[in-house]
Design brief:
disordered N terminus; 5 strands; alpha/beta; 43% helix
């Protein structure tokens, strides 16, 4: 159960975005939602990779525009792990399938309800992330496993955690 204080904090959670679109309405919609922080906007899809590298957003909203396959080719070049990808594009099954294969979390087709769909998608992503009780990035998880007993898994896990702690990292061994 989430206490009232934590729930209010969860409601204030935002995603940082880089937006690639020529439509200012999408950017305004994200900013007005109070749930997104737009760190960068690019008019030319060719500037997308540079903006993602510079701003390191949690999410990217990409308008596929007139050349969806060209823009999807640029998305493919974003280094892994990629930010959460939201795509605004045509209602074309081949384009949608390619976007999903590239890791698109949401695909929104233009239409009368597109703005509502974008806000619903944003809320869904934030809800699935859960409440953030700490500021800053989440800690990485390192798993040390052995194929059978007696191969030194515990030793390696302990030495790794001691080494990380020695370098100033906060470590928990489970």
């Amino acid at each position: 159960l989430i206490g009232n204080w934590e729930w209010e904090k969860a409601e204030m959670t935002q995603l940082s975005f880089v937006v690639a679109t020529e439509q200012s309405g999408l950017v305004e919609l994200l900013e007005q939602s109070g749930r997104a922080q737009v760190k960068g906007v690019v008019d030319e899809s060719s500037d997308l990779l540079t903006a993602v590298a510079r701003h390191r957003p949690e999410a990217v909203l990409v308008d596929l525009g007139r050349e969806p396959h060209e823009v999807l080719g640029l998305i493919e070049q974003i280094p892994v792990p990629r930010p959460i990808l939201l795509v605004y594009g045509p209602d074309d099954k081949e384009v949608i399938l390619r976007a999903m294969r590239l890791g698109a979390r949401e695909y929104i087709s233009p239409g009368s309800e597109a703005k509502d769909d974008l806000l619903v998608a944003l809320e869904r992503i934030l809800r699935e992330r859960g409440p953030e009780t700490t500021k800053g990035p989440r800690a990485p998880l390192i798993a040390v496993m052995g194929a059978k007993g007696g191969v030194g898994t515990t030793f390696v896990a302990c030495q790794l955690s001691a080494g990380l702690a020695h370098r100033g990292a906060k470590v928990a061994v489970v």
